[in-house]
Design goal:
The chain is mostly helical and about 240 residues long. The chain has eleven helices and no strands. It folds into two domains: about 190 residues, Hypothetical protein af1432 (Orthogonal Bundle), CATH 1.10.3210; about 40 residues. It is elongated, with a radius of gyration of 21 Å. The two termini are about 35 Å apart. It binds NADPH dihydro-nicotinamide-adenine-dinucleotide phosphate (NDP) and zinc ion. The site of NADPH dihydro-nicotinamide-adenine-dinucleotide phosphate has 19 residues, from helix 7, helix 8 and helix 9. The site of zinc ion has 4 residues, from loops.
């Protein structure tokens, strides 16, 4: 794996993907450079999953090029060969379908894809669970973040048996993610309780608590949305790729 031609092959994929994703940003409020995500996948596969297979590592780096940029499968054939293109195709959603259908198909297809594709998918879900936990997309509620984690678990179920170390890492990352979200929920509730204990005359009715929670959520979303708008002004609409 340390052979010079292997290093050159990895760098070629990074160079290609960086160019294709050059005007895109991830959905976190800081609008991280898009390329951080494919690089993270390859790093997870190598470091956590012990993957040394060049096809898998290159496919991980290229995994979102067709789905999220104007790259064609023919282009991947030309630059990287049929094997890599096939793995990328296995992890590429059909953007012509409605989102809910695409999400359903990911769950349905996962058990039937190749082992390299399962490994790439696992790394993708690890990266996105970390994202949703620590750097969530602008304007996502806690519920939406939870729903996203639940969905990844269903997709990952179909990828099991392909790489135990990665699967174990996913389980830990998911557990931490759920704990974090639970903590955030509890903090909101505790604050409400402290407020009413400190001054019983301020004790809120269940309806008032529901209203307060809603406006608190609206306020935090407005702040996130503000950052989001700033990023749109800086990077343009293209910074969110879908
Ligand atoms: P999206 O598909 O719109 O967004 C998630 C995708 O965005 C990821 O899979 C990832 O894809 C990419 N992404 C970019 N930046 C980040 C980041 N910082 N962290 C994580 N992922 C990032 O989300 P969904 O439509 O799947 O929504 C999540 C869940 O919420 C669904 O289960 C849906 O049913 C539910 N939902 C809830 C709503 C609500 O208001 N309660 C409204 C709509 C949906 P990639 O790796 O391919 O780039
Ligand atoms: Zn991805």
């Amino acid at each position: 794996m340390n052979e010079p031609n292997h290093i050159a092959a990895i760098l070629k994929a990074i160079h290609f993907a960086a160019d294709k994703h050059r005007n895109q940003r991830r959905k976190d409020v800081e609008a991280s450079p898009y390329i951080n995500h494919p690089i993270e996948l390859a790093e997870l596969l190598a470091r956590v999953g012990g993957v040394t297979d060049l096809i898998t590592l290159q496919a991980a780096i290229l995994h979102d090029t067709v789905e999220d940029t104007k790259t064609s499968f023919a282009e991947l054939d030309d630059h990287f060969g049929i094997e890599i293109r096939k793995v990328v195709a296995e992890v590429t959603d059909d953007k012509k379908l409605p989102k809910e259908e695409r999400k359903r198909l990911q769950i349905e297809h996962a058990p039937h894809i190749s082992t390299p594709a399962k490994q790439v998918k696992l790394a993708d879900k690890i990266s996105n669970v970390l994202g949703v936990t620590n750097y969530p997309p602008a304007d996502w509620s806690l519920e939406r973040r939870e729903e996203y984690l639940d969905w990844t678990e269903k997709v990952v179920k179909g990828c099991r048996g392909s790489n135990p170390a990665l699967e174990n890492h996913y389980d830990n990352v998911l557990q931490t993610g759920r704990q974090q979200l639970e903590l955030l929920k509890r903090e909101t509730t505790q604050e409400q309780e402290m407020h009413s204990e400190a001054n019983p005359s301020l004790r809120l009715t269940p309806e008032q608590i529901a209203k307060a929670t809603e406006s608190r959520e609206r306020l935090s979303q407005a702040i996130i949305q503000g950052l989001h708008q700033d990023n749109i002004e800086i990077f343009g609409e293209d910074y969110i790729k879908k």
